[in-house]
Design goal:
The complex is a heterodimer of chains A (about 280) and B (about 220).
Chain A lengths: L4 E9 L2 E6 L2 E7 L1 H10 L5 E5 L11 H9 L5 E4 L5 H9 L4 E4 L1 H5 L2 H10 L4 E9 L5 E5 L4 E2 L4 H11 L3 E6 L11 H10 L4 E4 L5 H9 L5 E4 L5 E2 L4 E2 L6 H4 L16 E2 L5 E2 L5
Parallel strand pairs in A: 1-4, 1-12, 4-5, 5-6, 6-7, 7-10, 10-11, 11-12
Antiparallel strand pairs in A: 1-2, 2-3, 7-8, 8-9, 13-14, 15-16
Helix pairs in contact in A: 6-7
Chain B lengths: L5 E5 L6 H10 L3 E5 L2 H5 L3 E4 L5 H11 L2 H10 L4 E4 L1 H4 L4 E2 L4 E2 L6 E5 L13 E6 L1 E2 L14 E6 L1 E5 L5 E7 L1 E9 L2 E4 L7 H12 L11
Parallel strand pairs in B: 1-2, 1-3, 3-4, 4-14, 5-7
Antiparallel strand pairs in B: 5-6, 7-11, 8-10, 9-12, 12-13, 13-14
Classes of the chains: A alpha/beta (about 280), B alpha/beta (about 220).
Chain lengths: ~280, ~220
């Protein structure tokens, strides 16, 4: 059966990785290459790399960084940030990305999603939706790195993107982002239940229980986390980390997730190769 | 045969072909991307990679003029060929995706995956890590655990008209054919170049695959 994907999100700005809280006050995390190397070594299900200043700087994501990261990563890498046209998507795929994330342009130019799906296949196109809870209890979609209100409801926008050919939605709760207080299960569930395509929940993970809740209660197909995999302890010390199988198995059934270290590879000469990170 | 076999990753259009090359090299192969008839003609192994869609892949193959040399290499010379994702689907004779004819090298067609009205967790595309239920031995999986997970990202799958070619199925709501083989022709629905160590192991087995001789086939 299909396993629940559990994926680190790396947020890139001009000088490296950063992590914010509720899209504010970013903290420098370090080199994206090193972080990707650590995650690759931990055998994670996939990586999501978002260049969060690209749109506001009017440029596409940094192809060079993506090339370096994907050089050594034999796992799916999903890339986004400032993607406004099919030509940029070609560039990112050529640089090693497997899937492209579109956020702001999905609102400003929804046709782009159809064009991308026609060109590369739906499975290659992910629409990222940043949503904030409003005073009346509803939610609103924001673009431009969470700075511009659109007046759109995330369910309506997600459905429209599905219709345009998008293969997956990456849904981030702006309120829970970086707080490690848990995902916004109400938001996640509302959007996921409306869709026929898969949804990745993002924003708020602080422990493995939160990951399982996003699936069980939020009906997410996959879970993504930034702060949870980049900070440690009450002082939020920067530490690139990823739980081991034993921790995941505290909250997931063995057949729900892909175990990262249980598959020793038997080499052609009969020797058994163990994952050095086990 | 001594020395590394030259593996040609056939360039049939858009997509991330460098990952396939890197995967093959990690698997101790020597690989290059090409759409040149001469380069393909000299290949000792061929890979038909996953590209955007069946339709685009077939159109690009036809446009590139590679179909005759590919048919010669694969069907006559028995050059080992590995189809990946859309490349695996293109081995069949037809796809619902775009209503397009395929290569017809494996007796089957490509149809859209179905969601399950009683299980809302079954979403299309099938995206993520899943397992194989092996129905036949296959050299690609030598030394790989039965529980190994591989990375899938697709909305269509192969239906074989002849069970003899089915190596493995994968469960997603209902089983679909995920690995096929007919002698030197292999197809995998998943992306071995994106499946960490187990994927590299599949590629390594492909790189080192030798077509059994007539005596060995007795």
């Amino acid at each position: 059966m299909l396993k629940i994907r559990i994926m680190p999100v790396l947020l890139l700005n001009e000088w490296g990785l950063e992590k914010s809280i509720q899209f504010q006050d970013p903290v420098y995390i370090g080199s994206p290459i090193n972080a990707a190397r650590v995650y690759n070594g931990r055998n994670v299900d996939g990586l999501i790399l978002l260049d969060i200043v690209a749109t506001n700087h009017g440029r596409p994501p940094l192809v060079e960084v993506i090339s370096q990261i994907t050089e050594e990563a034999f796992m799916p890498v999903t890339v986004g940030g400032g993607v406004r046209d099919v030509a940029t998507m070609h560039q990112l795929l050529a640089a090693g990305a497997d899937r492209i994330v579109v956020n702001t342009s999905s609102v400003e130019n929804p046709e782009l999603i159809s064009q991308a799906a026609d060109c590369f296949g739906s499975q290659c196109v992910v629409v990222s939706i940043d949503a904030k809870r409003e005073a009346d209890g509803g939610y609103q979609v924001y673009t431009h790195g969470g700075t511009r209100a659109t007046g759109l409801d995330p369910v309506d926008h997600a459905l429209r993107m599905q219709k345009m050919g998008c293969g997956e939605i990456l849904l981030t709760s702006m309120d829970r982002d970086g707080t490690m207080q848990g995902y916004d299960l109400n938001l996640t569930c509302r959007v996921s239940d409306a869709l026929d395509i898969p949804l990745i929940a993002c924003g708020g993970a602080g422990c493995v229980e939160h990951l399982a809740e996003a699936v069980r209660v939020g009906h997410a197909s996959a879970v993504a986390a930034g702060a949870f995999f980049q900070f440690f302890g009450p002082r939020r010390t920067v530490l690139i980390t990823y739980p081991d199988d034993e921790e995941f198995l505290q909250v997931f059934e063995p057949d729900q997730i892909r175990l990262k270290t249980d598959n020793p590879m038997v080499l052609p000469d009969g020797a058994v190769h163990q994952d050095p990170c086990a | 045969m001594d020395g590394p076999a030259m593996i040609v990753v056939v360039d049939c259009g858009t997509g991330n072909l460098q990952s396939v090359v890197r995967g093959l090299e990690k698997a101790d192969g020597t690989a290059t991307v090409s759409s040149s008839v001469d380069v393909v003609a000299d290949a000792e192994r061929l890979v038909l990679p996953g590209v955007g869609s069946f339709g685009h892949g077939m159109a690009n193959l036809e446009r590139s003029g590679l179909l005759p040399v590919l048919s010669q290499k694969v069907l006559e010379d028995k050059t080992p060929l590995l189809g990946i994702c859309a490349g695996h689907q293109m081995l069949t004779s037809y796809s619902e995706e775009g209503d397009v004819h395929g290569l017809g090298w494996i007796d089957g067609t490509t149809t859209r995956l179905k969601s399950d009205p009683h299980d809302r967790s079954i979403r299309i595309p099938h995206m993520g890590w899943n397992q194989l239920h092996a129905v036949a031995d296959c050299p690609l999986f030598r030394g790989i655990s039965r529980d190994a997970c591989f990375y899938f990202a697709h909305s269509y799958s192969v239906e074989c008209h002849n069970d003899a070619y089915v190596v493995a199925t994968t469960e997603y709501g209902r089983p679909f054919v995920s690995v096929v083989q007919d002698q030197n022709i292999f197809g995998v629905q998943f992306h071995p170049e994106k499946s960490h160590e187990n994927g590299i192991a599949v590629l390594r087995n492909f790189v080192s695959y030798r077509q059994p001789s007539a005596d060995q086939r007795q």
